[in-house]
Amino acid sequence: MDEGAILLTSAIEHDAVASIVRQLTVRDAESDKAMNAFLDNPNDPDLRARASDPRFNKGPGAMDLRVWRIRSEGVVDLDDLRRMMRSAASIAGVRPLVSLMLVNNETGVIQPVAEAAEIVHAAGGLIHCDAIQALGKIETSIIELDVDYLSLSAHKIGGPQGVGAFYVKPGAPFRAIQTGGGQEFGRRAGTENVAAIAGFGAAVDAAAEGMSSYKALAEHRDRMEARLMQAVPGVVVHGAGAPRVAGVSCFGLEGLPSETQVMNMDLAGFAVSAGSACSSGKVKPSRVLEAMRQPEGMARSSIRASFGWNSRGEDFDALAEAWLKMVARARPQLVAATI
């Protein structure tokens, strides 16, 4: 994208996108500090207004950033996107670029990418989809999504680390940032890692074959979540009111710090995380949950549990049992007599 372009993104994007947004939209220390504050507190109206003000984030070489809202159940607000696209489309000579994930990595909530693409294209914009968390978990079709760009990664479906795929729709603008060779039609110079690419292909085949088994995990997840909510008043399952992938459960109990839960569950033999699994060990409140209008106390008291293709029903039961025992030790007054 060129200087002066408009970049639109949601407040719940993965750090792989959010960090690039920071690089593209700020060019000085003061702006960087304020942008980080906004992305960590996306519901603060003053920070939101400042981050959306071109005079703030449009330093030398910077782009104009717009961040649209998230509904409380964790789904992007398409009406807010539509409003922002109308505003962006009114600027002559500018073609806005939108980036939206297909599945949120913290809550598992499925985002309406196809509907967003229709809004974006109607306003003359382009849209990128981060589909990394969706591959192998739900049907992912570039035709049905109708996006201009789409990112995938092998490691999320058990393939080799360090290999992925980037789809560019025919006719969509693309400029290489790594030059020096004609590989991949001049889009990325360098000899391809053929072995890793073959491993990625094999992983895709295996994931597609096992997708029905993965989707069946939803029954076990729902049973686990119902047990937790019944045993401990105050437990909140984030994203429960929206479509989710089957193997992700994000839940919290306000007043019981996330780091305490992570450490205790680790001692019990369960690798859970506070926020993104890529950010295990962090103690900051989840910006995704804050964007969903959860209070700071809840955002600091939630964990994420992920299950995969080889998970069984008893794994969900065992996690629930370990979590309830932990709560019984930490907050005995909160746990029902029968757990």
Structure description:
The protein is an alpha/beta fold. It folds into two domains: 6-207, Type I PLP-dependent aspartate aminotransferase-like (Major domain) (Aspartate Aminotransferase, domain 2, 3-Layer(aba) Sandwich), CATH 3.40.640.10; 212-334, Aspartate Aminotransferase, domain 1 (Alpha-Beta Complex), CATH 3.90.1150. The protein has 14 helices and nine strands. It has helices spanning 15-25, 29-40, 45-51, 54-57, 78-89, 113-122, 142-145, 194-209, 211-215, 217-231, 258-267, 287-291, 296-299, 313-330; strands at 6-10, 64-68, 97-101, 126-130, 149-153, 164-168, 236-237, 248-252, 302-306. Strands 2-1-3-4-5-6 form a six-stranded mixed beta sheet, with helices on both faces. Strand 4, helix 7 and strand 5 (149-153) form a beta-alpha-beta unit. Helix 2 packs across helix 3.
**What is the strand content?**
5-15%
Name the CATH class of the largest domain.
Answer: Alpha Beta
Strand arrangement within the widest β-sheet reads: 2-1-3-4-5-6
CATH superfamily of the largest domain: Type I PLP-dependent aspartate aminotransferase-like (Major domain)
Low-confidence stretches: none
If you consult CATH, what is the topology of the largest domain? Aspartate Aminotransferase, domain 2
Encode the helix/strand succession as letters.
EHHHHEHEHEHEEHHHEEHHHEH
Q: What would CATH call the architecture of the largest domain?
A: 3-Layer(aba) Sandwich
The domain tally reads 2
The description of the largest β-sheet is:
6 strands, mixed
Overall helicity: 25-40%
Whole-number mean pLDDT:
85
General shape: globular
Radius of gyration: 21 Å
Query: Can you count the helices?
Result: 14
Class by SSE composition: alpha/beta
Please tally the β strands and state the result.
Answer: 9
